[in-house]
Specification:
six-stranded mixed beta sheet, about 40% strand, single chain, 8 helices, about 775 residues
Length: about 775
């Protein structure tokens, strides 16, 4: 398909989307932000060792729905080192039923550290990289002596955070406390007091170490948080100083949106100075709400509809009359109610190497839109959510925090709010304001891959380095799935080819149409995004208290890698298939059917009836004849081993003994938007194109296309090590990333391993309407 036809198809597609009105927004001018792709990625666990497999599943949505037609059919997956932002693994996968899944083998020489898996489509590259799907992992390498577990541990102090990052005099302030895990114990009591130890409120602390209170303070008094241990020891932490003047903002989730309130003290000035703006920004700093207000009283409230907020972290920002940021309130939005998945099992304690049967179903079978789910059975504490919330990990990066909240559906709305208040305290204001100022306006720079994986680049003049527009470029896919495509370069010299049904590594030849070998040059565009989030060095998701878990997991990983069946490595195939997309109405001449010929001139003179040559001043041209012997065309397309040759003289100079066959199409042949008056195709016996000189303006590349997917019943009974004496110390007992749940439910079975301890059966899924489903149950192997 030509670039023009592809682009026209996409414009038509966007018009149809606007007409279908996916968001239900009538009378609104259509723009790119009206149609948003989201890809969620999940893994069997979050903690791995070098050499192990990461089992992943990616779910695709358009405007949080599973609807057709898909904008994209290909996703791009990367494993990136958080410390240096370098990709370790880059793969492409084709979507099937809104899902892509597979395995990533962790390199054995990988450095100990935290890594991010990120997934995106080419269409998503038109927007901020913050819109991609992210999932953070810890990978440990026993050969790396980095003291990773003790890096960046949170201090043992009690953290006190006020909403809006300010405590105001004579205002009802909302305050959150976090007590570190070492200070949590049965029998402890917690109080808020003034300087004379008058108790203002007794605090109730959750198992996560969070407490919350609302109180009206006096700026002339100090306030304290007291922790009284069961033995009578007291730990005291002072509140931030109460301010006599300022602006404070608070948020509260209601059924249909957020109640946003502003309280002020000592704010004076003329009417113009009291003009403020409320704006809502998505996680990628796109403005989705703007309201002008006048703060001419000490309090203000407004309701912001839930439809305004995108999934995940959003920012409500208050700007003063000069456009300066006055307040930032981060809010986490999970608009879809989480449906409960029931996990039925006869018992919760098993012996080693015992069969386990599990039935999965929806609670009360209330849903008519049944979800597609992923099921993992892994050792307890190998997921981030198994450990207590550690602010040192998550409060300096929105992507990390969003991944944590998105993965932990058991966190209730109250705890989400408390976490977001702490996030606001540690938010880098200068970074945030820079992002607001330099927010990317989306443009259709990256064309969506509606059919299959693409390859793109730029054509430019080799001498002037200027882009070459409106020029034909040819792409030949060789060996695995041979095909020829032609594309006309755009005004900026850019071109894009959509490849058909390709997988693995493919050899691709690209060249501009030209007989001058040095006139042009082709630059291939990196199909993976170069924009990287700078998370920097992140502490481990587990701390030194989990050293016994790590030691056991490492031993288990080593045993499993030494004794279990190794995953087969893919070997790129270089065997040419018979099919070719230029294959109709051809006549074939096989040279082995004839006596030996002297040269190429004798070939076209004596035995190829529908293709002839002319020679003038040492240069050759080809003609194609019809069935009646009349000249049909004097400018046919010429291919040698499926690559175009624009100079017939090169063909006529070939060694005739290297040619296997000649095929001729002596009719008009249409390939996409291109029409050829005849085609001559030569096939050689060699793997080097019969030694023909390749133009310098052409490019040969080994191009990675899509990987094979695999999701069916990994580590079920048939994947157990062979023989009773073969040790089995798997950390992941079961993984299936794409189960279509039905009304009658679904049954899975797996075997416990030789490793004793607690294991978590965790189920996550999405219905086509975007609703989330979740279930979790623990079993014990003893």
């Amino acid at each position: 398909m030509s670039c023009y036809k592809i682009f026209r198809y996409y414009l038509l597609w966007f018009f149809l989307l606007a007409c279908l009105n996916l968001q239900g927004q009538n009378n609104k001018e259509f723009n790119l932000n009206d149609v948003k792709e989201t890809v969620y990625i999940d893994t069997d666990r979050d903690i791995y060792f070098a050499g192990e497999e990461i089992l992943f599943s990616a779910e695709y949505f358009i405007n949080q729905l599973k609807v057709t037609p898909l904008i994209s059919n290909v996703i791009y997956l990367e494993l990136i080192n958080c410390t240096d932002n370098n990709p370790v693994i880059q793969k492409k996968y084709k979507l099937s039923d809104f899902n892509a899944c597979g395995t990533l083998i962790i390199p054995t020489d990988i450095a100990t550290g935290n890594y991010m898996l990120r997934v995106y489509t080419q269409y998503q590259r038109n927007f901020s990289y913050l819109n991609y799907g992210y999932h953070f992992l810890t990978i440990l390498n026993s050969g790396d002596k980095t003291n990773f577990l003790n890096t960046g541990q949170i201090s043992d102090s009690i953290d006190i955070v006020s909403e809006g990052n300010i405590l105001l005099d004579k205002i009802e302030n909302n305050v959150v406390f976090r007590i570190p895990s070492r200070l949590l114990a049965n029998g402890n009591e917690y109080f808020i007091t003034d300087e004379t130890l008058n108790i203002i409120e007794k605090a109730e602390v959750s198992k996560d170490g969070f407490a919350q209170c609302e109180f009206i303070g006096n700026y002339s008094k100090p306030y304290y948080f007291h922790l009284i241990k069961s033995n009578g020891d007291t730990i005291t932490a002072p509140f931030p100083e109460i301010q006599k003047a300022g602006v404070q903002s608070q948020t509260q989730w209601l059924e249909n949106g957020i109640n946003y309130s502003i309280q002020t003290n000592g704010i004076t000035g003329n009417t113009q100075d009291l003009n403020y703006q409320i704006k809502v920004f998505t996680n990628d700093f796109n403005i989705v709400y703007n309201k002008n207000i006048i703060l001419n009283s000490t309090s203000f409230e407004t309701q912001i509809s839930a439809e305004i907020f995108s999934e995940g972290i959003n920012y409500i920002v208050l700007f003063d009359a000069k456009g300066n940021v006055e307040q930032i309130n981060s809010v986490y939005n999970q608009s879809k109610k989480v449906g409960e998945i029931e996990i039925e099992i006869d018992k919760d304690r098993f012996k080693t190497r015992e069969a386990v049967q599990v039935h999965i179903g929806l609670k009360d079978n209330l849903s008519v839109d049944f979800p597609v789910i992923s099921v993992s059975v892994v050792k307890h504490k190998t997921k981030k959510g198994d450990h207590s919330f550690n602010p040192a990990l998550y409060l300096n990066d929105a992507l990390l925090l969003n991944d944590y909240l998105q993965d932990n559906y058991e966190i209730d709305n109250k705890l989400q709010k408390q976490i977001m208040m702490m996030f606001d305290k540690y938010l880098n204001r200068s970074f945030f304001e820079e992002k607001i100022k330099n927010a990317k306006i989306p443009t259709l720079e990256y064309i969506p891959e509606t059919r299959d994986v693409t390859i793109s680049g730029i054509l430019r003049n080799k001498d002037t380095q200027l882009p070459v527009a409106n020029h034909d470029i040819y792409a030949s896919v060789l060996f695995n799935n041979p095909q020829l495509h032609i594309c006309k370069s755009r005004e900026n010299g850019g071109f894009i080819f959509s490849l058909n049904n390709v997988s693995g590594i493919n050899d691709i030849f690209l060249c501009p149409e030209s007989t001058d070998e040095n006139e042009y040059e082709i630059l291939i565009t990196n199909s993976f995004s170069s924009e990287m989030p700078k998370t920097g060095e992140i502490p481990a998701f587990i701390d030194s208290s989990s050293s016994e878990l790590i030691r056991e997991a490492f031993i288990n990983a080593q045993i499993s890698q030494n004794f279990q069946r190794k995953p087969e490595k893919e070997t790129p195939s270089r065997i040419s298939k018979r099919s070719f997309n230029i294959d109709n109405n051809k006549t074939t001449t096989i040279l082995a059917d004839f006596v030996n010929l002297k040269n190429m001139e004798e070939l076209f003179t004596e035995i190829v009836p529908t293709a002839k040559f002319k020679k003038s001043n040492g240069r050759y041209t080809f003609s194609v004849f019809d069935a009646n012997g009349n000249i049909f065309s004097e400018n046919p397309l010429v291919l040698l081993d499926k690559i175009p040759v624009f100079d017939p003289t090169k063909i006529m100079q070939l060694d005739i003994s290297l040619i296997e066959k000649v095929e001729v199409i002596n009719k008009t042949y249409i390939l996409g938007a291109n029409t050829f008056q005849g085609v001559i195709m030569l096939t050689s016996k060699t793997n080097n194109f019969a030694g023909i000189k390749i133009p310098e303006s052409s490019v040969f590349i080994e191009y990675p296309t899509v990987e094979e997917t695999n999701h069916i019943g990994r580590f079920s009974k048939k994947y157990l090590p062979a023989g009773e004496r073969m040790p089995d110390f798997r950390t992941t007992l079961f993984w299936d990333s794409h189960i279509k749940l039905k009304a009658e439910g679904h049954d899975i079975d797996f075997m416990t391993s030789d490793s004793k301890g607690a294991y978590d059966i965790e189920i996550k899924g999405y219905a086509s309407n975007g609703q989330i489903f979740y279930g979790k149950k623990q079993i014990f192997v003893q």
